[in-house]
Amino acid sequence: MAEIVPSILSADIIELKSLLDEFKTSNIEWLHIDIMDGHFVPNLSFGPQIVESIKSSYRFLLDVHLMVTPPEDFIEPFRKAGSDLITVHIEATPHIHRTISYIKSLNCRAGIAINPGTPILLLKEIIEEVDLVLLMSVNPGFGGQVFIRNAIRRLNELKELCASLGVSPLIEVDGGVNGENIENLIDCGVDMLVIGSAITRSKDRKSRLLELDNMMKRRGQKIEEYNPNLKGR
Q1: Band (203; pLDDT cuts 50, 70, 90)
Q2: Bond into 169 cis (ω within 30)
Q3: Domains by residue range for the chain, with CATH
Q4: Angle between helices 72-81 and 48-57 in degrees, nearest 10
Q5: Which residue among the candidates 12, 174, 204, 213 is catalytic per the annotation?
Q6: Of the listed 34, 37, 63, 191, which one is catalytic?
Q7: CB-based burial label for 150 (10 Å; 0-12, 13-18, 19+)
């Protein structure tokens, strides 16, 4: 069953504690934290301190997405701060195997992210080494963007690549995910759906989160009834 991974990128920083408390009472397991450096993407976001602060006060598993270059300089500080999963972009370093190995050497789960304009086939040489593949469904750098439709086709390509290699990393989608595309994404076998502004900019966040969660559960149940072999995904 797919699960919602809320992103705090579009959150009002003044309301962050209230937002996190709502996620806690809604039994959210994973929290997505986007790290931007103003170089790899045209924006700045959080440093290790926000990860450390959240980790010290909550039990969320922290899914840290490094949109930075060079990513190698950021991995250890964010791991020490409490990251449970660190994802780096395949476009951000010429030494992607070394970078993934470095993350894993710190006893941390490793993910690989891929931008909308990067061919899925480029993942072939690294996908066996990672725990998660993050497919960007917007161009990274800003919250609140519109979902790029060809992400569905790319998801199918990614699933085909995984099947051809006999690997099964978690598949995560980030960017423009909302109630209009959740069902299509679940149909494609997505495991983790990063949802930001569709929750954080809602007037009633708890109700919106519950609505999205119910949509996912209903769709997941239908898929399991159709194909019992997918139960528990």
Answers
A1: confident
A2: no
A3: 3-230 (3.20.20.70)
A4: 20
A5: 174
A6: 34
A7: exposed
